[in-house]
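Sequence in, structure out.
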Amino acid sequence: MHTYALNARQLPLDDGWDVIVAGGGPAGCTAAIAAAREGARTLLIEATGSLGGSGTSALVPAWCPFSDKEKIIYRGLAEKVFTAAKEGLDHVKPAALDWVPINAERLKRVYDFLVAESGATVLFHTQLASVETDSRGAVTALLVANKAGLTALRAKIYIDCTGDADLCAWAGAEFHQGDDTGETQAATLCFTLANVDSYAYQHGGDLGWWNPQSPIHAIVDSGLYPEIPDKHLCCNLVGPGVVGFNAGHLWGVDNTNPASVSTALAQGRRLAETYCRALAAHAPAFANAFVASTGSVLGIRESRRITGDYVLTLDDYLDRRSFPDEICRNSYFIDLHQTKREHKNKLDEVQAATRFTHYTKGESHGIPYRCLTPLGLRNVLVAGRSISCERIVQGSVRVMPVCLAMGEAAGLAAALAARAPDNDVHAVSTGTLRERLREHGAYLPTLEHESTPTPAAVHLATS
């Protein structure tokens, strides 16, 4: 690629912030709320026109489980968001905790209200464009692009909730992406079908790929719809006559490559129409349905993962490990969707979903604060699917409930670091952080022989 030298010029600088959060998905929203709640002057920048990410712009139709099959474990702000979103769904039982449908428009308003109530400021349609750093491993400014042109933003602490670790990568932090070949999990463009016969849908049997009687098997096996790549299909009734779909795989999508994303979005919209036609022919409930909406952004399962002070491992997950500096618990199964190669080799969806043993009732593992602190960056935290972990474990920690919990911890830690003289996120007292999270309702079981680790002890444990 050719290069172009920019003309030297001055940019407007907005430096009145303690904390800036990049990305307004689930983790970004709770990070901004938690930081502002602690009194930090907090700015949340979001590239689209709404908050919520996967559950709103990407139209993911249901929450992954909020329970460990026994009790809710994603508490604090995560539970607050979940409860407020669920209250607007009359067809959902109030006690439901797992695979609860999402009304995307209601969820947008929930995030709007909670972020505004916290005192944080939001800038929509504001794209992170570049990151400025100094020789000490500190980010000194973010360059953003919006209708005001290019603007520089400065804070004491930055939180990367972009989902792709854009801020960290552009600041020079070490990261990994995909497997040994660079391949990442497949993307999906979610969509909604309207004018569905709700009675026929609710009484016509489960449409999910795990049901041998689901019409998706006949659809794919018929050979009449070659555009439909496989039998992956999940759906939820999100409102009267409206069904949300998480269906089909778009393989080979790199969410850090604009050309790749552009191609996948167009492909996904064509695919949604194909699903609509196929379901109309094979499922009576959809005889008169039409595509009401497709996600304005792709449903991305995987891209970059930072290298932090600690890398969460598969052994940590399998051992249900606890950590002295853990900031939340996680119980979601390791959800690695089949690759294109595995699909060609006849690995079906059931085999992919059960390749690792699922936790039983009451089981979970901890996520250490050190997974949120990128090596080499002094005043940056990460929350969401880009935390420091092995690729296999990312298949579990990438989903919305745990991202909400991680975001709250990152926001609170950012506020603590913003008060410190050196603004070093690695030096935050995890004892204080855990205590404050508990005060706000987080689920952090008392550990055996629990003591408050000093920042030095945390660093020694990773050396």
